Amino acid sequence: MDFALTEEQTAIFDMAHAFGQENIAPFARQWESEGTIPKELWPQVGELGFGGLYVSEDSGGSALTRLDATLVFEALSMACPSVAAFLSIHNMCAKMLDSFASDEMKARIMPDVLSLNTVLSYCLTEPGSGSDAAALKTRAEKTDQGYTLNGNKAFISGGGYSDAYVCMVRTGDDGPKGISTVYVEDGTAGLSFGGLEEKMGWKSQPTAQVQFDDCKIPSNNLVGEEGKGFKYAMMGLDGGRLNISSCSLGAAQTALNLTMKYMSERKAFGQSIDQFQGLQFRLADMEIELQAARVFLRQAAWKLDQGAPDASKHCAMAKKFVTEAGSKIVDQSLQLHGGYGYLADYGIEKLVRDLRVHQILEGTNEIMRVIVARHMLAEHS
Ligand SMILES: Cc1cc2nc3c(=O)[nH]c(=O)nc-3n(C[C@H](O)[C@H](O)[C@H](O)COP(=O)(O)OP(=O)(O)OC[C@H]3O[C@@H](n4cnc5c(N)ncnc54)[C@H](O)[C@@H]3O)c2cc1C
């Protein structure tokens, strides 16, 4: 068993970290207050091969392992978890297209997806269905030319901003087997967006409803086979859970680094506050939890790379553990900064706000426990 990163993995992490520190970190607060990420950033990210991190070489992707991809998200989220998480969603969609889209479709769209000239959103949630995603109601009626879509998707990261939408829609009966995946390009007649949601965190990402009103798409925008869309959507989620956990991890590492520095400089009662043993113990607890989260996450990624039978269980366990650990660490970091932690200039309060949603999306942390318990019961039956 070897827990060390390879030279290549270290180089991937360093490249992503350097890019984030130069091109994202200095602007993260500005983008947050503007409520958007400049579109010009994405082709630069694409040049690094991050538009299709684990898309196969055959499709022109970087063909990295899931473990390698976690390093990219951990490193980028050290600059801004909101930007890193947005890239994670694009990559989840890109992998779905790589795995299931027809050769014709891949030839048509993949070059722009990989270069990030086409930014993708993932549309599963609806106003009436989140955790119970298979209850979705957006309808795609088959016509002579293709499909006509009617319905609404809720909470869509990149709604009204992205260039294309990978959408789970109902083509058949109720339940998961009646769901298909379709690709809807921005500008398609009948596609519109709700107003921008006001959110606690992830403020640089526009979030909006995606609405279909007799929205007509050609038949060759069906991804894979009819009736398999729910399976495709769920297959993307194991990796998505690793990515979002990595975003918590990187942000928590940044918060801890800032806290160590602050505590060495801040004086109280005649000494720097890092000399109080009670606070040293808090630092030690944060470090222990962070390192445990990192090892657990990388093990889950390794399991997914190996195709291990318990990979989904480990991805769910890691998502629950790492996102909660990340939130605890950034919250403790805020506390150790005293009143200054509450001020935007110190860089901690944004992380507290940004990480909170990681416990809610890509499957809530309650649903992660449902998955873990289901696996445990199956293993013991
Ligand atoms: C900022 C943001 C961005 C998002 N981006 C996207 C996106 O890009 N694309 C997309 O498709 N979705 C997106 N979502 C939606 C997100 O995936 C859902 O919010 C999430 O799946 C939860 O669904 P819900 O909000 O409907 O909550 P509900 O499913 O209604 O859950 C409410 C509560 O009940 C609990 N619960 C539900 N069922 C069970 C159960 N069986 N056992 C125990 N507890 C249960 C939940 O854990 C939760 O605490 C985003 C959400 C947010 C907040």
From TrEMBL:
Record PROSITE patterns: ACYL_COA_DH_1, ACYL_COA_DH_2
Domain Acyl-CoA dehydrogenase/oxidase C-terminal intervals: 227-377
Keywords of the record: FAD, Flavoprotein, Oxidoreductase
Pfam families with a match to the protein in the record: Acyl-CoA_dh_1, Acyl-CoA_dh_M, Acyl-CoA_dh_N
Domain Acyl-CoA oxidase/dehydrogenase middle: start-end pairs: 122-215
Cofactor(s) the record lists: FAD
SUPFAM superfamilies reported for this sequence: Acyl-CoA dehydrogenase C-terminal domain-like, Acyl-CoA dehydrogenase NM domain-like
UniProt-recorded name of the protein: Acyl-CoA dehydrogenase family protein
Domain Acyl-CoA dehydrogenase/oxidase N-terminal: 6-115
PANTHER family tied to this protein: ISOBUTYRYL-COA DEHYDROGENASE, ISOBUTYRYL-COA DEHYDROGENASE, MITOCHONDRIAL
Family assignment from sequence similarity: Belongs to the acyl-CoA dehydrogenase family.
Organism: Pseudophaeobacter arcticus
